[in-house]
Amino acid sequence: MNFHFTKMEGAGNDYIYVDEFKEPIPENIKSALTQKLSNRHYGIGSDGVIFIKPSKAADVEMEMYNADGTPGGMCGNGLRCVGKYVYDRSLVKEKTFTLESSGEMKKVEVIQTNPDGSAKMLKVDMGAPILDADRIPVTHAKTRPFEGEQAVIDEPIEVQGKTYRMTCVSMGNPHAVVFVEETDSLPLAAIGLHFEHHAWFPKRTNTEFVQVLNEEHVKMRVWERGIGETMACGTGCCATAVACILNHKTGNKVQVDVLGGRILVEWDREKNTVYMTGPAEEVFSGIINIKL
Ligand SMILES: N[C@H](CCC[C@H](N)C(=O)O)C(=O)O
Questions:
Q1: Is 238 tagged catalytic?
Q2: What are the structural domains, with CATH classification, of the chain?
Q3: If you write DSSP's letter for every residue of 225-286 in order, what string do you get?
Q4: Is the dihedral of CA 19, 40, 196, 226 positive or negative?
Q5: Among the atoms of ligand 1, which is closest to the Cα of residue 47?
Q6: 214 is in an annotated binding site
Q7: Which positions does the site annotation Could be important to modulate the pK values of the two catalytic cysteine residues cover (predicted)?
Q8: What is the tens place of the pLDDT at every residue in 177-234?
Q9: What is this model's ipTM?
Q10: pTM of the entire predicted model
């Protein structure tokens, strides 16, 4: 089959974007297609594939698959990139519009443009963080260490014989946020998978390792479910900020420095909504001619 694609990245979190307005892709091949295209040696290389398609309820709908072919839930960097994609192609008329992802409506705003008028920085209203254990979920059929409406804040978790302290936040997908002394020397390749597949996370988890620099600035490295270490994670930055605020480590506005760039997060406690602001870039586009 033949179809067009666009490679985009948000703070280095790179996805292949496929526009289904023009070329619909059969649902039953999306997982296998993603695994093939995302492979960094045998494919184009990406953290996953994002399908952009018409929505009944919003201006546009997006659907994300992780590099391993598992369907992802929410995707913050993807929302900003899809926002840029539809804004730059005039698929939306205003600077503010709605995108549908995982059945939820997200308000996106282009807040800065390039000299050619294309979108440069976008702000997304990511909605309320989910904290209760059953809805994240952070439970295990046998041990059930956390359940019900209880929030998991600063709780010990043992991984490979070492005890870490984690705070669990869902932004539509699960995140375990772990505070560390410093992120640079962290052996993420050795520990990441053990968090992802820990028995307490029956649906696996994304994990953020956070070094607090001061009350408004942190450094973070992320291990994403279904991918591994990535350069950035939008929902992960939101979860990071929420965890920092809940643990009284920062104020309500947090600059999160990730390997691939910088994301600004603000948790408006009155409205109980999280705003995420960051860049979106288009890298290249082309035509895929593939046999599955
Ligand atoms: N990179 C994405 C999140 C992907 C999360 C995914 N790995 C999952 O399975 O939940 C972001 O910018 O928010």
A1: no
A2: 2-126+279-289 (3.10.310.10), 133-271 (3.10.310.10)
A3: TTTEEES--HHHHHHHHHHHHHTTSS-SEEEEEETTEEEEEEEETTTTEEEEEEE-EEEEEE
A4: positive
A5: 1
A6: no
A7: 175, 224
A8: 999 999 999 999 999 999 999 999 989 999 999 999 999 999 999 999 999 999 999 9
A9: 0.98
A10: 0.97
